[in-house]
Automatic annotation (TrEMBL):
Amino-acid biosynthesis in keyword set: yes
Subcellular location: Mitochondrion
Main location: mitochondrion
Name of the protein in its database record: Acetylornithine aminotransferase
PANTHER family noted in UniProt: ACETYLORNITHINE AMINOTRANSFERASE, MITOCHONDRIAL, AMINOTRANSFERASE CLASS III
Keyword Amino-acid biosynthesis among UniProt keywords: yes
Metabolic or biological pathway: Amino-acid biosynthesis; L-arginine biosynthesis; N(2)-acetyl-L-ornithine from L-glutamate: step 4/4
Length: 442
C-alpha cells in the first residue's frame, strides 16, 4: 500500500547504544550580531515573589472565574524559578522534575538564555515572515548542520509542527504522483500515541478520549500496534528497537511513503543523544521538534530532506509569528549548549545514575512494575494510578508528571539536574510510596 505515512517516536525512549555522532554533520562558521548591552541576570529567584501580593487561593479563584476550564491544574501557583527549583507565590520551594513538560531543558533562568532573549528583545523581536531575519536563518543552518535534514520550516508549537508535517507529506505525494488521478493520501500512526490537539494532529493521536469529543477529525488514518504486530504496548516511556525502526524505514522506501519521526518530547538531548533516532542509525524523511528548542519560548520546527522540500511552493504553508528573531535567538543559545558532546554525555551519565538508583530503591515495592527510559526521560510503571503519588510528592516539594493511562510516573527534569538533586528526588519518592498502599487498601 502506498500512503503518506506518519510513524511516531513520540512516546518512545531509546537505549544508550554507541553511535557515530558525526553522521552528516556540517561545520558551521558564523556568528550572530548582538547588541552591546549590560544585562543584569539576577541569581536570587525570590526577588519577584513580593511583586504579586495575592495568595495562591486568590489566584486559583480568579483563574476559575476568568479562564476557560481546559486544564485540571495542580493547586500550585508558581511565581519564579532558578535552575531545577521553582517557587510558589508564598515562597515555597519545589524540585522541578517536569521542566514545563520537557521544555525547560536548561532549567529556569539560565543566564545565557536570559542574555540572548534580553539582547534580542532590545534589538528586534518580531517582523513576520514577509521579511528575512538573521536569527531565523542562522538557527536553520545549525539544525541542518546537526541533522539528516536539508531544510527547516518553523512553527509556534509541537502540534503546529505536526500539522505542517501532515501538509508536507500530502503535498509530496501529490507532487510525486502528478500524472495520477488520485495520489496516496493516507497516514499510518501507532497505538497509544499522542501528537497534538489540532484537528490534523488529533486525527493521528490514537487515544480516543482526546479525539472523540471533536469527531469527525481528518479521515484516512490507520493505527498499527507499536513495536511489532504481535504485541501491543501502552504509551508512557517505551523504547523502540532498531529492528522495528529499520522495518519502518524499509517499508516506507518500498512503498514510496515518507517516514516521519515526532521527536517533540524525546529529541534535543533528552535521550542522551541530540536526536533520539541517532541511537539506532535509522533516519526519517521528516522530523518534528518543539518543546525544548527555545528553552521556554514557543517554537516548533519541521526538518525535511531536499526531496520533500522540492514539493513545497510559496504559499503552501505559513505563520505570522513562527521563527521570529526573539524566539530564534533563544533557540540558538539552547541548541548550541545542548549539542555539545560534553553536555550530551552528561545527560547520558546522569540518566543512567537516576534510572539505576530508582531500580535499586523502588524495585522492591509491590506496586512498581518497571523502571524504564533512556537519558533524562524516565518512566516508573505502577499497577495502579500514579496520581496519588504525584500529589504526595508535590506536598513534599517534588513536582512529577503522569503518562500512559495514568499509571506511569513521567520524570523529565531539566537536563542540567545535579546528582545531589537526583538523590533528593529519589528520597522524596521513597517517602511518598506508602500512599500507594493506602490507596490500594481503600
Amino acid at each position: 500500500m502506498s500512503c503518506s505515512t506518519l510513524f511516531t517516536l513520540k512516546t518512545s525512549l531509546f537505549a544508550s547504544a554507541a553511535v557515530n555522532r558525526s553522521f552528516n554533520l556540517r561545520p558551521t562558521n558564523y556568528s550572530l550580531p548582538t547588541a552591546s548591552l549590560n544585562v543584569d541576570v539576577h541569581s536570587n529567584p525570590k526577588t519577584s515573589l513580593h511583586e504579586n501580593p495575592k495568595k495562591s487561593s486568590e489566584v486559583i479563584a480568579d483563574e476559575k472565574k476568568f479562564v476557560v476550564g481546559t486544564y485540571a491544574r495542580a493547586p500550585v501557583v508558581l511565581a519564579s524559578g532558578k535552575g531545577c527549583k521553582v517557587y510558589d507565590v508564598e515562597g515555597r520551594e519545589y524540585l522541578d522534575l517536569t521542566s514545563g513538560i520537557a521544555v525547560n531543558a536548561l532549567g529556569h533562568g539560565d543566564p545565557d538564555w536570559v542574555r540572548a532573549v534580553t539582547e534580542q528583545a532590545n534589538v528586534l523581536a518580531h517582523v513576520s515572515n514577509i521579511y528575512y531575519s538573521v536569527p531565523q536563518v542562522e538557527l536553520a543552518k545549525r539544525l541542518v548542520a546537526l541533522s539528516f535534514a536539508d531544510r527547516v520550516f518553523f512553527s509556534n508549537s509541537g502540534t503546529e509542527a505536526n500539522e505542517a508535517a501532515i501538509k508536507f507529506a500530502r503535498k509530496f505525494q501529490r507532487y510525486s504522483h502528478s500524472d495520477e488521478k488520485l495520489s496516496p493520501m493516507e497516514f499510518i500512526a501507532f497505538t497509544n500515541c499522542f501528537h497534538g490537539r489540532t484537528m490534523g494532529a488529533l486525527a493521528l493521536t490514537s487515544k480516543e478520549n482526546y479525539r472523540s469529543p471533536f469527531e469527525p477529525v481528518m479521515p484516512g488514518v490507520t493505527f498499527l500496534e507499536y513495536g511489532n504486530a504481535q504485541a501491543v504496548r501502552e504509551g508512557g516511556i517505551y523504547s523502540a528497537t532498531k529492528e522495528f525502526l529499520q522495518s519502518l524505514r524499509t517499508a516506507c522506501d518500498n512503498a514510496g511513503s515518507l517516514l516521519i519521526f515526532d521527536e517533540i518530547q524525546c529529541g534535543l538531548g533528552r535521550s542522551g543523544y541530540l536526536w533520539a533516532h541517532e541511537a539506532y542509525g535509522v533516519y526519517p524523511d521528516i522530523m518534528t521538534l518543539a518543546k525544548p528548542l527555545a528553552g521556554g519560548l514557543p517554537i516548533g520546527a519541521v526538518l525535511v530532506t531536499e526531496k520533500v522540500a522540492r514539493a513545497i511552493n510559496f504559499g503552501d504553508h505559513g505563520s505570522t509569528f513562527a521563527g521570529n528573531p526573539l524566539v530564534c535567538s533563544a533557540a540558538i543559545t539552547v541548541l548550541d549548549k545542548i549539542s555539545s558532546p560534553a553536555f550530551l554525555a552528561s545527560v547520558s551519565e546522569k540518566g543512567r545514575y537516576f534510572k539505576d538508583l530508582l531500580v535499586k530503591k523502588l524495585g522492591g515495592y509491590s506496586h512498581v512494575r518497571e523502571v524504564r527510559g533512556s537519558g533524562l526521560i524516565i518512566g516508573i510503571e505502577l499497577d495502579i494510578s500514579a496520581s496519588p503519588l504525584v500529589d504526595a510528592c508535590q506536598q513534599l516539594g517534588l513536582l512529577i508528571l503522569t503518562a500512559g493511562k495514568g499509571n506511569v510516573v513521567r520524570i523529565v527534569p531539566p537536563l542540567i539536574i545535579s546528582t545531589q538533586e537526583i538523590d533528593r528526588a529519589v528520597e522524596i519518592l521513597i517517602d511518598c510510596m506508602p500512599v500507594l498502599d493506602q490507596v490500594s487498601t481503600n
